[in-house]
Structure formats: C-alpha cells, structure tokens
Amino acid sequence: MNAPTPTPVPAAAGIRLGLAANLPQFVLLVAVNALVGGMLGQERITLPLLADSVFGLSAYTATLTYILAFGATKAITNFFAGTLSDRYGRKPVLVAGWLIALPIPAMLAWGPTWGWIVAANVLLGISQGLTWSTTIIMKIDLAGPARRGLAMGLNEAAGYVAVAATALATGYLAEVYGLRPAPFLLGAAYAALGLGLSTLVVRETREHARAEAAAHPTGGHHHADLSTRQIAWRTSLTDRSLSAASQAGMVNNLNDALAWGIFPIIFATRGLSVAEIGVLAALYPAVWGFGQMATGWWSDHVGRKHLITAGMLLQAIAIAAVALGESFAIWALAQVLLGAGTALVYPTLLAVIGDVAHPAWRARAVGVYRLWRDGGFAIGALLAGIIADLWSLSAAIWTVAALTAVSGLVVAVRMAETHPEKRR
Length: 424
Description:
GO terms for molecular function: transmembrane transporter activity. Helices cover 78% and strands 0% of the residues. By secondary structure, it is mostly helical.
C-alpha cells in the first residue's frame, strides 16, 4: 500500500504540515544541511594523512584522537540540541552551531600542533551536533507523518553527498597544492554561507511540531508529558524499537569511524596515491548520499525494519571486503557496497524515531538517538585504534565487520515495524 497523501494540519496561525505546503523552507534546509556535510567532508582525506606526514604520529590510537574528540562532543551536543530546540526554538540553535563553526577551517589549515587539530574537532563536534540535529528536527516538523522517510532521505542525502563532493575536492586540492591550507578554504566558505542563510532566510519551525502534537493521539505508549530523563531511558533501553534503532545507529557510526580513520591509512600503506585515496573516500559517502534519496522514500512504502536489517548486514560484508581486498577495484566495490548498506539504514533509523516518538518529545528523542549514534564515532575510534596498535589494521577491520553483523541481527529480533501503514 502506498503511503497516504499528506494531510495539511491547521494551527492557530494557519500552519500546515507536508512537503508541498512547506517546499521553499524544506529546500532551503536541504541546502543548509549540504553545507553542514561539507564541513565534515573537508577532513575525510586530509586529517589521516596530516597525522603521519605533518605531525609524525605513528600510533593508530593517537592518530584517531581527532575522531574521538569529534564523536564524543557531537554525541553529547546532539542530546542537548533536542532539548534546547524545544526550549528556545530550532533557529537559534542552528545559528549558534554555525557561529561555533567559523574558526574551524583556520585551525585545521594553520594549527601548529596536533592539539590544535583535536581542538578544532571538539568545535566541529559541537557545531555538527547543533546544526545537523536541528536541520533534522526542522524537516521532521515540516514534513508531517506521511512523508517522514522521504524527508529524512533528502536531508541525509544532501549532507553526505556534500561530504563526498568535498572529500573528492579536497583530495584534488591536496594532490595539487599540498595538505594545507588549500583544502580547508572550502570549509571557510561553507561556514560563512551557512551562517548567512541560517540567520537571514531560515524560519522557525517549532510551531509546526505543536500543530502536529495538537492532532496526535496521546494515549498508549506516546505519553506526551514524559520528562527528559524518561525519554532518554525509553529511547535507550525500554522501548524495543527505539532502543534497537539507537544501538544500530551507534554501530553504524562506529564503522564510519573505521572508514574515516583507518581506511585511508590502509590504502596508503598499500601504495595508493592521495588522488586514488580521495576517489575511494568519496565513493562511500557519494553512494550513501545519493542512495538515501531512494531509500527514505522506499521505507515509506515497504516499512522500516527490513531495510535496516539488510543494510547492516550489507555493511558488514563490505567492511570484510576491505580486509580481504588487494586492489583499487576491489576496494572501490567495497566502498560502493558500504555506501549502499548505509543508505538503507541511515534515513530509515531516523524515520523510526519519528514514527514512535510523540511530537511533544520527538526533538528530545532525536537528540538521545543521535547521542548514541554519534557516540559510535568515539567508540569506533578507540576500538579501531587500540586493536590496530595491539594486533593489526586487518584485525580492527574484521572486528568492526563482526559487530556490524551482530547489530543487524539485533534489529531483526528486537525492532517492531514502526511505519503507521505497515504495522501488523
């Protein structure tokens, strides 16, 4: 059965829900999130190579401290982004995130020690937690329930296509002009444009959530008056679907930390050039990003659970292929598979949160989910670095592949189908 046509929901100020009713603002927020993704993309190639060639870091655990710093601060900020956006509105949180982003490109381009790089990633984690979380919440506010998967697919597609495009561009700039400062000038432009659009053109969307809440059922498991602590407990542990989504999100970003921090190193040790590494680093988020345009829409039609399970298992196969591969072609295929698996999972997990959480506490549930999800960056950086230092890069890759497969099985067993039209 096709997802139902979005029904406009009136509010006191004439607010309506749905993509068609809010298309200009929705498209604007897609563009803003592309700039958010570009801020992340400027690091995907350059920082693993800078750690070795410029700062002389040889231990993998030390090299991955920037991912640990980014993941830990982004995870914590995600949690507070949901609460702050409920309390003060979405737009002020978005603007604050862009203000924090302004010094990051200069710190990456001219920081004299590795400590400056780590500090820049602390700021990047805070900025990404505020900006990316808020664009997600705002799009959920605007879209309403019927097209939630499509909305999340477009949001995440914009962000990760920008990650891929910026990774490819910075790989080229690094090959031609060196690792610093040229690749980070793109990030400076992104931050300035993102701040300008968010301040001058983006409009507040909190009233859209209130309009949906006014028409939302409040009985059963929704409980519109839950405290933040109760929401965190429910999203993390007691609600089977929300908790299954949270652990899958965490493992997904755990393996993304591996792709970000370890894959460029292993490709370099096998003799690939910076430009070739740039192509591989761009393939994964490019397939991930473009794929979400279809997978978010697909989850609105076939449901969420099976796409998530299949996506996690496909990711596990792709990561194992990196460990087994010995050529550019094999690694390129593995990056395509990893991107496809992630595309199946990423917007669909967010749609699960939107399906289950009541509009009155949905922003906080998104924050808790993203706390777990982006905590995977920190856990992945620590786990991969320690295993690589104690044993080998291949051992780290095989460990993450196994964890990803187990996570998919947890979803298969624990999660219920959450799409309103597909529940049994």
